Amino acid sequence: MNSMNTNYSIRDEIRDFWSERAETFDQSVGHEIFSEGERKGWQRLIRKHLGAGQGRAALDLACGTAVISHLMHDVGFKVTGLDWSDAMLAQARAKAKKRGTDIRFVSGDAENTMEPRDSYDVITNRHLVWTLVDPASAFKEWFAVLKPGGKVLIVDGNMGRETWVKGLQKLWTKITGKPAASHMSPEMMARHQKIRSRVHFSHEMPAEAIVELLRKAGFVDIVIDRKLGDIHWAQARKMPFLRGLERMVQERFAICARKPG
């Protein structure tokens, strides 16, 4: 990380952070899928809001190692995965080759995709919005890339919101001197928090705040879906107790919106 370079921006820092996590990204519950129950939960969510793929064009933004890209492919979409971390894309391409899928991968910025206007039927992303420096501009970009009548499906959460489980974790650390179980090292966690402090949603990110920005970008028929219990329960069962409990009480949601036309 070249933080001494005055041209090194928050966007560069985000890219480099996720690049360093690429090699072990799929080892974490909540990133890769570790049960058929979770897989079915994701497929249910996708079909509920986007319908069957039927060969329609889908753009999976910040695709990482292509977990959501493969879920979209499995339900019949023709998928392009976009990420600006070359390390993540290398993992994604290797996974697609191993699984024999024809997903197209491109390097690009989710806030300025450089993809053709009016070219995609759907856009998906998971845990991307909290990292956006300028979500208002990003949503306008997504609006432009979608075909008239196209939909965006955002899966994210209000991770900055304090829960009673977080309080319990802090108490546990204070009593035992042991930090709560995490898939990140203390050094990576510190970098994660530094990044979070500088993005648009640096504290809480309620679904309603995302909805307002989507509406200003021109989207209509916006729906907040908080019924993700099947996914979260499947994930929690694979996690250490306190992390699993936190997963079940966090304010996580999916938001679906449509471009008029």
TrEMBL record:
<keyword id="KW-0489">Methyltransferase</keyword>
<dbReference type="InterPro" id="IPR050508">
    <property type="entry name" value="Methyltransf_Superfamily"/>
</dbReference>
<dbReference type="InterPro" id="IPR029063">
    <property type="entry name" value="SAM-dependent_MTases_sf"/>
</dbReference>
<keyword id="KW-0808">Transferase</keyword>
<dbReference type="GO" id="GO:0032259">
    <property type="term" value="P:methylation"/>
</dbReference>
<dbReference type="InterPro" id="IPR013216">
    <property type="entry name" value="Methyltransf_11"/>
</dbReference>
<feature type="domain" description="Methyltransferase type 11">
    <location>
        <begin position="59"/>
        <end position="154"/>
    </location>
</feature>
<protein>
    <submittedName>
        <fullName>Methyltransferase type 11</fullName>
    </submittedName>
</protein>
<dbReference type="Pfam" id="PF08241">
    <property type="entry name" value="Methyltransf_11"/>
</dbReference>
<dbReference type="GO" id="GO:0008168">
    <property type="term" value="F:methyltransferase activity"/>
</dbReference>
